[in-house]
Amino acid sequence: MKQGIFKISSSSSTLRRRLAPWCILAIPMACTIWLKYYPIFNAFYISLFKYDPINPPGKFVGLENYIGMFQMQYYWEAWKNSFVFLALQLSMCFFIPLIQALLLNELIKLQKCLTTLYILPALIPTSVNVIIWKWIWHPEYGIANQILNFFGCQPQAWLSDPNLVKFCIIFPGVLGGGLTVLLYLSAIQGISSDILESAALDGCTGFSKIIHIILPNISFMISIQAIMCVITTMQFLDAPYMYASGGPSGASTTQGIFIFNAFNQDLNYGRGSAASIILLLVIGILTLIQMHFEKTEKE
To answer: CA 197 to CA 204: how far, in whole Å?
Structure first.
């Protein structure tokens, strides 16, 4: 009898252990589906209509919003700008912080002081940072042109020049990328001292240590930062809009600005939703490609 009671209590405790995680996660999962996934499916639903906010959802047009959007040159220019921003972001705000972290790791005396200096720019809000840099890039009294004048170079229009505006928007991220530097630095300092000592005994020092020891051991952090860089840059909206509102001549118009204008200026909710769905698919494909390469390298 006692043995039967013990089996029942044991099975009930096992059932409780299995159900406990689901009970704890039920509300967060429901909120995630409601606040994250429902808007995605709703955006796809709206993209199939010539949406009328007064009498929703309006006239059903199928894929007409997608077809009409693909025929717009302005839309493809926004894609071109987004990928140019991505290339600049990867070259200036992804690789440079990694180099900075590698150099910072070699310091002994001033490492804590420089670490603090790196993180301070990241504490400045984006809006304040944009105001400061718009003053720096100002063609008449900005510091950038004063530096060029000091070296005898011609002043530039900077944010008013279609060839320079993308560089001007991305460049502040090099100086304000302190958080990325610290993430890389923490990953480097997390490498086991036994591995580094063994490498030193084998004569693996200097540049060879970086290539064969440090970089392979922080590849997880590099992969995460690469994925986050692609996702955030393809969704670029706030900085280009605050710097130049997508100008001059659409040179800084990203997919984020295109979607924003479709909703708020054109009041074309169907086109804006269609552009959002396409952007989601492109980011998803790029992320899957990155994860595939990461998995292949590990194998």
So the answer is: 9
